[in-house]
Amino acid sequence: MAIWLFLGAVNGLVAVAAGAYGWHSLAGDDGARKMFEIGVQYQMGHALALLAVAWLATRLEGRGRVPVHVAGGAFTLGIILFSGTLYAFGLTGLVPVEGAAPAGGMLLMIGWLELM
């Protein structure tokens, strides 16, 4: 579906931009920089997963599409919560919402489970 293709492309773009920013602009605390880099890696990996979701959504019919769409939603929310939290921590040294990163990680895993 077009939404998953769009979200995959946007997340790929943001991951590349964040990676470049982190590499060239973040200095100081190596732990915070490492967390930022992990956020980039997970965002890029799941941007590619969203592209796979877009492809699968065009190949399946009827009820077969439901788990694929659930996976796309889980990947999208997981990226926001997991990578977003790591980006915020890398930039500020603060966790914006306690438990957001683990919840995002769980959503990413749910996305993969839905594709099984």
**Proportion of helical residues:** over 70%
Mean pLDDT across every amino acid position: 94
Regions with little confidence, pLDDT below 50 for 5+ residues: none
Strand count, sense and closure of the main sheet? none
Separate helix tally: 4
Number of E strands:
0
Question: What's the order of the H and E elements?
Answer: HHHH
Structural class: mainly alpha
Euclidean distance between termini CA atoms: 19 Å
Approximate shape? elongated
Radius of gyration equals 15 Å
* Residues in β-strands, percent: under 5%
What does this structure look like?
By secondary structure, the chain is mainly α. The protein contains 4 helices and no strands. The chain has helices spanning 2-25, 30-59, 66-92, 100-114. Helix 1 packs antiparallel against helix 2 (30-59) and helix 3 (66-92) packs antiparallel against helix 4 (100-114). The radius of gyration is 15 Å and the shape is elongated. The mean pLDDT is 94.
Write the layout of secondary structure elements.
Elements: H1 2-25, H2 30-59, H3 66-92, H4 100-114
Helix pairs in contact: 1-2, 1-3, 2-3, 3-4
Summarize the structure.
With 116 residues, this protein is mainly α. The protein has four helices and no strands.
Features:
116 residues; 83% helix
